[in-house]
Design goal:
The structure is a single chain. This protein is an alpha+beta fold. Among the domains are: about 20-80 and about 195-295 and about 310-320 and about 335-390, Bira Bifunctional Protein, Domain 2 (BirA Bifunctional Protein, domain 2); about 410-505, Anticodon-binding domain (Rossmann fold, 3-Layer(aba) Sandwich), CATH 3.40.50.800. About 40% of the residues lie in helices and about 25% in strands. The protein has helices at about 5-15, 40-60, 75-80, 80-85, 100-130, 135-140, 140-165, 165-175, 220-225, 225-235, 280-295, 340-350, 375-390, 425-435, 450-460, 470-475, 495-505; strands spanning about 20-25, 35, 65, 85-90, 100, 195, 200-205, 210-215, 240-250, 265-275, 305-310, 320-325, 330-340, 355-360, 365, 370-375, 390-395, 400-405, 415-420, 440-445, 465-470, 475-480, 490. The strands form seven sheets. The protein has a seven-stranded mixed sheet. A five-stranded mixed sheet has the order 20-19-21-22-23, sandwiched between helices. The protein has a three-stranded antiparallel sheet with strand order 5-4-6. Helix 2 crosses helix 13 (about 375-390), helix 5 (about 100-130) runs antiparallel to helix 7 and helix 7 packs antiparallel against helix 8. The radius of gyration is 27 Å and the shape is globular. It binds glycyl-adenosine-5'-phosphate. Glycyl-adenosine-5'-phosphate (GAP) binds near residues 262, 265 and 335.
């Protein structure tokens, strides 16, 4: 399979050309780390949302949804710890005037050492194949051991510096590692300082007096503050969950890698409230359930892995990420966190209101523990889109660009194509279009040769193309072409719905 040299650039360009994603305010040179979803992008995004919502809310009797406001009382963010601790360590290069996240500079450095290890392994694999024992090699090779030790030492020092908020030592580490600015190539760094990631604005007119409020940096707090409202109004019994899809905002310093790290993005979060002491059992349950859900999209298992957190946030007693193999390597797609009773207790303290559950079986009140699943919708979009976009070499020597999106989330499910623009074929085609439109997102196309139209539909990921030809007028049959195999079958028009129903979810 022919693959482009710079996959991410190819993805960005394809997403723009076909109306999936545009840079925001492009006519004004764009606004960094913000993107607009175009006609096909919004369909794909909505389908991903529905796919999640159906799995989480519709398929779980004990999970209900909410849609909380983006603006919340400012004390929310004091209670959650975001005002005091939602920071990134920043450093500037004095020559290029570019700003970096100090932790990213160190992580990139560590990644380069890890790449050296991989190179040693690959070299040895070629040399000693087929009897190469990778585990043994990693445990005994002098170079690999030297590099591994370097990584461990740097990680340990960096972790201590972060935990003790020792910004001077982070700078010292960057200097000792001789990390240079990728733009200027110099080591002329400023001090490291903490930068809060929340966007703030003012609420109320000046006459009324104004108050600083924040754009929520996560949707989860809208769930926590509504815990009792939902539990009581929906008569939920523990264990139960509250799910939400919505926008979140973070003033990311280094916003890069397309829609991977944005300043305005969407999260799909679910907080699962459980009896204290049962949280680790439910944490394992949600780990298994969420990876199963991702894999149900049909992307190979090798594209996913868990990354268990060794360093836990102060409120968590277990945490991991589901990582996906993005074009730039394995990176976080979803977080699963056992958040204890930290958030509810903090809101109790700051609001003075009880946020407790009354267990009628044991006749006791308690603050529930929480297991959270949190996936970024835009990251999920990038995961699915980047995997799906393929350059395929065909048997006749030509290539095609095909977007092998999971059928369930493809923005257009069916293309309806009259072979010619005359002889009553368009009329017949529109009749078929109207009969399918209620159940499936369809596109009608009569321009250019049918071959070109197939290519256009391949490029936007349409699973089925229905072609109406002269025979259709006499025997009411059409051909259906399947995107991935490119196989065509002829079938009666009256069987189309059953065929599509068997092969593709309605949307
Ligand atoms: N409530 C927990 C929480 O917000 P997080 O790990 O900070 O945890 C959860 O974020 C998910 O949100 C991430 O796994 C990622 O998919 C997505 N996400 C976070 N920051 C993002 C950003 N700047 N751009 C796009 N997605 C982001």
């Amino acid at each position: 399979m022919a693959q482009p040299e710079e996959p991410l650039k190819h993805i960005i360009s394809h997403a723009k050309s076909y109306g999936f994603i545009f840079p925001s305010s492009e006519i004004y040179e764009g606004l960094s780390a913000t993107y607009d979803y175009g006609p096909l992008g919004v369909e794909l995004k909505n389908n991903l949302k529905n796919y999640w919502w159906q799995a989480m809310v519709r398929m779980h009797e004990n999970i209900v949804g909410i849609d909380a406001a983006i603006f919340m009382h400012p004390t929310t963010w004091k209670a959650s710890g975001h005002v005091d601790a939602f920071n990134d360590p920043l450093i500037d290069n004095k020559d290029s005037k570019k700003r970096y996240r100090a932790d990213h500079l160190v992580e990139d450095y560590l990644q380069k050492i890890a790449q050296k290890i991989d190179k040693e392994v690959e070299k040895a694999r070629t040399k000693f194949a087929p009897n190469f024992d990778e585990n043994m090699f990693r445990q005994t090779n002098a170079n690999v051991l030297k590099y591994s030790e370097q990584i461990q030492n740097i990680e340990a020092r960096f972790k201590t510096a972060l935990e003790t908020d020792n910004l001077a030592d982070i700078k010292a580490l960057i200097e000792e590692l001789e990390i240079v600015c990728p733009i200027s190539g110099t080591k002329n760094w400023t001090e490291v300082r903490q930068f809060n990631l929340m966007f703030s604005t003012e609420i109320g007119s000046l006459a009324e007096g104004s108050n600083k409020i924040y754009l929520r940096p996560e949707t989860a707090q809208g769930i926590f503050v509504n815990f009792l409202n939902v539990q009581q109004s929906a008569r939920m019994k523990i264990p139960f969950g509250i799910a939400q899809i919505g926008k979140a905002f973070r003033n990311e310093i280094i916003a890069r890698q397309f829609i991977f790290r944005m300043r305005e993005f969407e999260q799909m979060e679910m907080q699962f409230f459980v009896k204290p002491g049962e949280e680790l059992k439910w944490y394992e349950y949600w780990k298994a359930e969420r990876i199963r859900w991702h894999k149900s999209l049909g992307i190979p298992d090798t594209h996913y892995k868990f990354h268990d957190h060794l360093k836990l946030a102060h409120y968590a007693n277990a945490a991991c990420d589901i990582e996906f193999k993005f074009p730039m390597g394995f990176k976080e797609l979803e977080g699963i966190h056992s958040r204890t009773d930290f958030d509810l207790k903090a809101h109790e303290q700051h609001s003075g209101k009880k946020l407790q559950y009354f267990d009628i079986e044991t006749n006791e009140h308690y603050v529930p523990y929480v297991v959270e699943t949190s996936v970024g919708l835009d990251r999920l979009f990038l995961a699915v889109f980047s995997y799906a976009l393929q350059e395929e070499s065909l048997a006749d020597g030509s290539t095609r660009t095909v977007l092998k999106l999971p059928k369930a989330v493809a923005p257009i499910k069916v293309a309806v194509l009259p072979l010619l623009k005359k002889d009553g074929l368009p009329e017949k085609a529109r009749e078929i279009l109207r009969s399918l439109q209620m159940d499936y997102a369809c596109q009608y196309d009569e321009k250019d040769s049918v071959g070109k139209r197939y290519r256009r539909q391949d490029a936007i990921g349409t699973p089925f193309c229905i072609t109406i030809d002269h025979q259709s007028l006499t025997d009411n049959t059409v051909t259906v072409r399947e995107r991935d195999s490119m196989e065509q079958v002829r079938m009666p028009i009256e069987e189309l719905k059953n065929y599509l129903h068997a092969h593709c979810a309605r949307t």
